[in-house]
Amino acid sequence: MRVSFMIIILFVGVVFWQVLEYGVNAAPKEVVVRKVLPMDVPFEMMEARTYLNRIREAMNMNTLMQNDNLNSAAQAHADYLVANNGSSHDEIEGYENFTGIEPFERVFHAGYNASHVSENLSTQHHDAKSSMDGLFSAIYHRFAFLSPSIDEIGVGVTQNEQDSDKSAFVYVMGNSELNRLCSFKSFKGAGKYVYKVCKNREHRIAQKKFHKALNYNKQNNPRIVIYPYDGQEEVSPAFYSEVPDPLPDHEVSGFPLSIEFNDYFFKDVQLNSFKLFKKGEEVSNVRLMDKYSDPHQRFTEKQYALFPLERLEYDTQYRAEVEYVSNNKTEKLTWTFRTQIPTEKLHTVTQEEESIEIESGKSHIIYFKPLDAHDIVKNIQFPTTVDIQFIDNNTLKLTLMSDETDSFDIVSDTRVLHIEVKSSN
User: Fold this and answer.
1) Which pLDDT belongs to residue 13?
2) Predicted model pTM
3) What is the pLDDT of residues 253-276, one digit of tens each?
4) Distance (Å, rounded) from C-alpha 231 to C-alpha 282?
5) For residue 365, how many other CB atoms are within 10 A of its CB?
6) Measured torsion, CA atoms of residues 70, 46, 127, 53, in degrees rounded to the nearest 10
7) pLDDT tens digits, residue range 177-232?
8) ω into residue 28 within 30 of 0, thus cis?
9) What is the Cα 162 distance to its own chain's centre?
């Protein structure tokens, strides 16, 4: 029995990295709107910091302490984003919940004394893990989370009570030793000093103490920070977008690899090669990014990223190799990681129009392998007797809601999938 009622879903990528927004367009016969459930906001706030610290700990990095002032600043900006339907790091004076245009102004407003802070955010996510995973796929935001110089964090989470689809996660990171120096009396002795780094812009810090504060955490972190880290499991296979976008000519690509040489240990380093291997074969369609090739000039001279220009495969082990020169000595670094393993049977669709057979009574993962750098699933149509949840912009989880369905189609802007249902008996 082929079902006639259809759900039409618009699929849009927005905001500060890969964020998926699902809206429902008017359908000719029947529309079903699925609202997300309200979050347990206090739990998700705690889970965000716990999850990030779990990652840093697995990489032998220092974990991040909670700072109440940073918490207040992060929460204020999360409230601002949801109240004003925003997605920016900047606020507009006069708007609801405004506390400062830039992150450093907002931490000052919250009682934090040092201006050296960084901020990550995501919107329209409904749990800490998906928010954090998305930000780790975004290279600029990843470097902020994995900075060797930070040791404290504040987390803010807000969800609109009337519209649970609207939410914001905000993370503000800082350096506790620098904040402590900004809380002391201003330096008045002889010698070099720095200023304009504290809430009181005229506050002076002896230059030696300032550099010691910046280096305090770096010396207690690894010499080299790599991600995905060695032995990591369940790595996302894809990267979609970030603001600013490091790959503006791609709507979909593979999950980027990154390496940062801790500048406390490395004064001079030269990268000779950065390679990725799958099943012993080098992945050749890649783009290496450094300070000079980064289109937005966000990288430091010690940061590098390797972007596979095609999505990685599910449930596959990859090997990364880096060769570099430091102090006139050539070194080689090798590590492995494995991509996500689907929890249900995986069906990979490789053509514009294709037919597959699924078994009733079970959920299935449908992966529309991108046909090119811009092929993401948009505006899909499917029967009301089918439940669909998006895993990413090319992958969905499908569950039949009726035993009466024996065949149906999933149709998007660029793909048509004919599905036959066979009995599980």
Assistant:
1) 33
2) 0.90
3) 999 999 999 999 999 999 999 999
4) 19
5) 17
6) 80
7) 999 999 999 999 889 999 999 999 999 999 999 999 999 999 999 999 999 999 99
8) no
9) 26
CA 354, CA 374: separation in Å to the nearest integer?
19
Region of poorest pLDDT, from 18-27, 64-73, 81-90, 153-162: 18-27
Neighbours of 22 (CB within 10 A): 16
- Helix orientation angle between 207-218 and 176-183, rounded to the nearest 10 degrees: 150
- Which amino acid, 370? P
Q: Which residues pair with 197 in a beta bridge?
A: none
What is the C-alpha to C-alpha distance for residues 386 and 95, in angstroms, rounded to an integer? 42
Cβ(17)–Cβ(243) below 8 Å:
yes
Indicate the pLDDT class of residue 280, thresholds 50, 70 and 90: very high
Separation CA 228–CA 59 (nearest Å) = 9
- Whether 311 shows a pLDDT value over 80: the answer reads yes
* Distance in angstroms (rounded) separating the CA atoms of residues 269 and 352: 46
Digit-coded pLDDT (tens) for 335-344: 999 999 999 9
- Is there a contact between 377 and 396 (Cβ–Cβ < 8 Å)? yes
At position 14, the amino acid (one-letter code) is V
Instruction: Give the integer Cα–Cα distance in Å for 109 and 41.
Output: 23
Q: What are phi and psi of 176, to 5 degrees?
A: -65, -35
Spatial distance between the Cα atoms of 282 and 271, rounded to a whole number of angstroms = 18
pLDDT given at position 15: 29
172's CB contacts (< 8 A; 6+ apart) are 70, 73, 74, 77, 103, 106, 107, 117, 118, 119, 153, 154, 156
- List b or e across 327-358, with b for residues whose CB sees 16 or more CB atoms inside 10 angstroms: eeeeeeeebebbbbebeeeebebeeeeeeeeb
Both tokens of residue 39? 């979050």
Identify the three-state secondary structure at position 317: strand
Written as one string, the DSSP assignment of 122-139 is EES--SHHHHHHHHHHSH
Non-local CB neighbours of 261 within 8 Å, separated by 6+ positions:
223, 224, 269, 302, 303, 324, 326
Tokens 């618009």 locate to 10
